[in-house]
Amino acid sequence: MGAIIRQFRMEDYDAVAALWESAGIRVDSREDLAFKLRRDPELFVLAEDQGRIVGVLLGAFDGRLGSINRLAVAEAYRRSGLASRLIEAVEERLIELGARRVWAWIEPENDASRALFARSGYEEWAGVVTVSKGLTPRQR
């Protein structure tokens, strides 16, 4: 399985949305992803094998801290090292941008992702609570 890692393009939307959906991850609208691409498109990466999208990771950078979320890998490619390759690709890009730290957003019950990130050197911070608030009318 010789997947290549490359940057997301809007024409990848349907395949990425299907992969996120199959992994139980909320799918962003085309509009939301187009908005994301205006900020740091190099951090939205995917893995492609023989023309098929088999992995995706949505990274972001606020000028100081990076974040990793929406990591999904097709069932047949899990436990192959592909998720680690996607994480490393975004980490390298974050370093180039000057990021000082990177966070990964993981659902508490997702033991596989928690183990993956632990193997990649990530440390869980039990004392941190994540809160969120929608700022657009459709998010409220």
Structural description of this entry:
- The chain has helices spanning 13-22, 30-37, 82-97, 111-119; strands spanning 4-7, 44-49, 52-61, 65-73, 101-104.
- The chain has a five-stranded mixed β-sheet.
- The termini are far apart.
- The protein is built from four helices and five strands, in the order E-H-H-E-E-E-H-E-H.
- It has a single domain (4-139), classed as Aminopeptidase (3-Layer(aba) Sandwich), CATH 3.40.630.30.
- By secondary structure, it is an alpha+beta fold.
At a glance:
With 140 residues, the protein is of the alpha+beta class.
The whole-number mean of residue pLDDT values reads: 94
Number of domains: 1
Order of helices and strands: EHHEEEHEH
The CATH homologous superfamily is called: Gcn5-related N-acetyltransferase (GNAT)
Q: Give the biggest sheet.
A: 5 strands, mixed
- The CATH architecture category equals 3-Layer(aba) Sandwich
- Radius of gyration in whole Å, from Cα? 15 Å
The fold-level CATH name is Aminopeptidase
Task: Bin the helical content.
Answer: 25-40%
Q: Determine the number of helices (DSSP H or I, runs of at least 4 residues).
A: 4
Strand order of the biggest β-sheet: 1-2-3-4-5
What portion of residues belong to β-strands?
Answer: 15-25%
Poorly predicted runs of 5 or more residues: none
Structural class: alpha+beta
Separation of the first and last Cα atoms: 42 Å
Which quaternary structure do these chains form?
A: single chain
